[in-house]
Amino acid sequence: MECDNYRDISLLNTAYKIFSKILLKRLLPYVDENIGSYQCDFRKGKSTIDQLSIIGQIIEKRYEYRQNIWQLFIDFKKRKLIKLVKLCMENTQYTVRVDNTMSTPFTVDTGLKKWKNSTEKTFYALLKFLNSKTLSRRSKMRLYVSVIRPTLTYGCEAWTTTVTTEKRLRTFENRIWRKICGTVFDTNVGCWRRRFNRELQEIMNLSPVTSFIKGQTIQWLGRILRREENDHVRVAFEWKPKGKRPRGHSRKRWIDGVAEDLKEMGIEDWRVIAQDREKWRDIVVTAKTLRESLKSYKHRTSITGWTKVMSTTCMTINHLIWRYWNSSTTTTVTGTNCYASTSCPLIKVDNVTGFPQCWPA
Q1: 275 has pLDDT over 90
Q2: Does residue 333 lie in a domain region?
Q3: Helix, strand or coil for residue 326?
Q4: Using CA atoms, how far apart are residues 87 and 115, in angstroms rounded to an integer?
Q5: Is residue 193 part of a domain?
Q6: Any domain includes 309
Q7: If you average pLDDT over residues 92-105, what whole number do you get?
Q8: HSE (CB half, 13 Å, CA atoms) of 222?
Q9: Given a cut of 90, is residue 236 above it in pLDDT?
Q10: DSSP 3-state assignment of 28?
Q11: Does residue 101 lie in a domain region?
Q12: Higher model confidence: residue 323 or residue 87?
């Protein structure tokens, strides 16, 4: 799934496409008999997630029992032929001949991919779309759901996420959401500011990327449990290495994270429920639409409570400073709000609003 292996899609005749489809349907029954179950790409009912899951389970369990593992990677790409074609096509000039007249030499970039700095160009092009004022917010949201989030979460079914990983994913998602929603003018401060996470959640009306990943992992667990017992993915999932685990707490496993998410939803006998596709589909939809997990909510609530305590303390300190300076200097009174003088050495004055950077009385 490398971008370097991408080839341009050529425009074909409609009759040729129909003929290719008919030929493919006739060849598939014979091809499936000769191809082993180890081949998962471009096959019905299989995908590259199968291979990622198998590799992840083997590495995870071998590491849990502190056993060695060796991996062999084979590059099936015809590197020599591709290099020869690139040498013939790159930095080449063309001319057009009409009768005996030759045109001036020119270069052709159509159909030739410039792979250098392609990632950076794509990233900046994406930012251009997100910052564009001509595109509506709805179009930007569709761009995020259809392009950005699938790219970010590719292969997430086999991920073993931790708190640090989820925090990084949420940080990246909030940055993209802020690009889509833009800034807001705060009338209390009198200047533009970034939107808070709560405001982004209300505007986007989407579940966080962490909930989407949890739904994908739960969905993949159901597919594994419904596979045949001799399937490679099922064998890797049920396999247990021989030997004893070393002393100490082991690293978090993939099944531990999925079982924990299901337990938060009140599901204990997930091996039995996974055999029912309809019930399991409802569980997956519920997991994807959850705003936050219970653990994250408790953690955020504790942080919010501590923030409120600190804010109250700062307000009290600022009020005492104002009372102290009010006894010896002039103050400006507007209605019921009192502000300290601009000559106060203990309080800094905002150059934009003209108000001191402290809480009013």
Answers
A1: yes
A2: no
A3: helix
A4: 14
A5: yes
A6: no
A7: 77
A8: 20
A9: yes
A10: helix
A11: no
A12: 87
